[in-house]
């Protein structure tokens, strides 16, 4: 019996971009143009991007901009074939860890009002609605819900993240696609973004 695949999360590199473009096109109705991620990696000092891989295959990615004391999640997507395996939760934990490492006070993002699965995932990880961006998404003029965490270093937030990390770590390494693994069965969602010349949408 072969061993379960191990999920690895690491910084995104230029060599990853072909795989990123495949997930991008499979996840978003308005994908970023091919050069956008290259520009982000090469020229945007505020940007930090991560990829999640199984063996040699990249299955998810996410990124954020670190602006003063705020970590703004700019993009977040899991390949459709690998959703419902808690990969999105593991990647979101890594982004929150990165935010703390970079001394961000809080994390924020935008998400489509209609993307209830993504909203549930973000709420689970401490994001709360704080406002609306009207007609934020270019494809259908849908409003975006702005969601922000309480201070990342607060005892309540650290306790929440600690409990969620323990639950993810205790789950099977990678449940089969479509299996329900507690709340990990939530469809992984995508955050909204107005950066890099494109709009984002939920990846549900």
Summarize the structure.
This protein is α+β, with helices and mostly antiparallel strands and 204 residues long.
Tell me which CATH architecture applies here: 3-Layer(aba) Sandwich
- CATH homology superfamily: Gcn5-related N-acetyltransferase (GNAT)
Which descriptor suits the 3D outline? Answer: globular
Broad structural category: alpha+beta
Query: How far is the N terminus from the C terminus?
Result: 32 Å
CATH class: Alpha Beta
Kindly state the percentage of residues in helix.
Answer: 25-40%
Into which percentage range does the β-strand content fall?
Answer: 25-35%
- The count of domains is 1
What is the CATH third-level topology name? Aminopeptidase
What series of H and E elements makes up the topology?
EHHEEEHEHEEH
Annotation keywords:
alpha+beta, 7-stranded mixed beta sheet, 26% strand, 204 residues, Aminopeptidase
Structural notes for this entry:
The chain has 204 residues and is α+β, with helices and mostly antiparallel strands. It has one domain: 3-Layer(aba) Sandwich (Aminopeptidase), CATH 3.40.630. Helices cover 30% and strands 26% of the residues. The chain contains five helices and seven strands. It has a seven-stranded mixed β-sheet. The radius of gyration is 16 Å and the shape is globular. Mean pLDDT is 84; it is low at 176-204.
Blueprint of the fold:
Elements: E1 7-11, H1 17-27, H2 34-43, E2 47-54, E3 57-67, E4 70-78, H3 87-101, E5 106-112, H4 116-124, E6 127-133, E7 144-149, H5 155-170
Parallel strand pairs: 4-5
Antiparallel strand pairs: 1-2, 2-3, 3-4, 5-7, 6-7
């Amino acid at each position: 019996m072969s061993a379960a695949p191990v999920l690895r999360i690491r910084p995104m590199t230029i060599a990853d971009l072909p795989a990123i473009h495949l997930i991008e096109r499979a996840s978003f109705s308005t994908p970023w143009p091919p050069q956008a991620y290259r520009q982000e990696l090469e020229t945007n000092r505020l940007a930090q991007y991560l990829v999640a891989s199984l063996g040699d295959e990249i299955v998810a990615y996410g990124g954020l901009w670190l602006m003063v004391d705020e970590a703004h999640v700019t993009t977040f997507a899991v390949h459709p074939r690998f959703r419902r395996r808690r990969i999105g939760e593991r990647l979101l934990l890594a982004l929150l860890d990165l935010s703390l490492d970079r001394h961000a006070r809080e994390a924020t993002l935008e998400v489509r009002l209609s993307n209830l699965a993504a909203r549930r995932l973000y709420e689970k990880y401490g994001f709360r609605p704080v406002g609306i961006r009207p007609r934020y998404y270019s494809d259908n003029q849908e409003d975006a819900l702005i969601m922000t965490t309480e201070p990342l270093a607060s005892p309540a937030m650290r306790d929440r993240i600690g409990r969620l990390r323990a639950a993810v770590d205790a789950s099977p390494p990678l449940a089969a696609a479509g299996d329900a693994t507690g709340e990990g069965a939530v469809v992984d969602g995508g955050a909204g973004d107005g950066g890099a010349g494109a709009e984002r949408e939920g990846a549900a």
